[in-house]
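Quick note —
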Amino acid sequence: MKNIMLNLDGHSVFSPSSSEMWLNCSGSLLANMKVRQEGMDKGSEAAAEGTVAHEMAEIWLKTGKKPIDRIDDVIEVDGYSIVVTADMLGYVEEYVNWCNAQDGEKFVEVKVDFSHLMPVPNQKGTSDHVCISGNKLTITDLKYGMGVKVDAEHNTQLQIYALGALEEFGFIYDIKTVEMRICQPRLHHFSTWEITVEELLAFGEHVKKKAREAWSENAPRSVSEKGCMWCKVKATCPTMAKYVESAVDDAFAAVDESNESIINRIDEGEYLMQIPEVSDLNIEQLEKIYSKIKPVKSFFDEVEKKLFDFALKGGKMTAYKLVAGRTTRKWIDESVVHQFFADNGLDENTFNPRSLVSPAQAEKLCKANSIPLSDMDLLIASRIGKPTIAPIGDKRKEFIPNEDLADSVDWQD
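Predicted structure written out below.
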């Protein structure tokens, strides 16, 4: 393990950006570190583009000037040539404006040390933006990618950064609450989450325990949506193979059987029998299995659709339930909103840097400019998001559909 630790080009062993992985699957840490050490993880163009966007944001926040002189510059990152464009600066501006709208003492690209949480020393990272106002610590993270929408709530990467920032600033400031924020300008997504210092420190104890578990050559592996999403070794992971075998066994059945026989096996609990582990299969066999992936996925998508339609019509399941999707808000008439802020003395560049700010961003503007939030009530239309199927123990309230609801509502995605 010492050799692995010494060959990661200065990167922390317990990277906060991959914390969802090793916190959910202890065995993933060393396996993924080996991939990094052997140079098999080459990064991506999207990641390189994000690095350049962060660089432009850092320059802008530190100098207070938009780096328009960098437009058309070509920056080499991990073998990719990334061009700084006006569009890139336009998106970065949304992040910069969000950071600058805060009151308090601000710090850009803060080096934080979270070694006190880990079983090995020199575990550090960089928090994009830190602001301290009164008893409140706020960290803001810029995510330039467009692939996956990321929320601040219970975000493990931000919580680890916050623990590092608390270690850095906690002895200077009397911090009581911590706000974590994620800005994804290309997805027009701004997410915030606030917790107490006590809650954050409790999470830190959880991190300590899981980090110790992960720093073991025989650490157990487990399958989860977030934990496996960015894992570099899931294709050859025995635990994933066992998980898949329980889900798609009949996709590999060598004998024909009637639909009645399959239905009987489902009723008797014998459907999805054990299949060989991936490590026991050769390339030719793996190719044959790979050809089954799309049909199997289509089958499971259809199963989910059937359950969703059943629940939406009021049906009751024993292990799952229907819960409401997240409520979203949008402006009823953008021209009226423009006039609203203009009448309240706000410069257009404040509320419409590239496009009109969202209702959530507008609320922050109103608070900063002493405008009553209730004055915006008639400008906003709220719509309930499309319901989704969740485990019966999910903390969200059960969604009870009205009769014929599916025919009367145009659900938002």
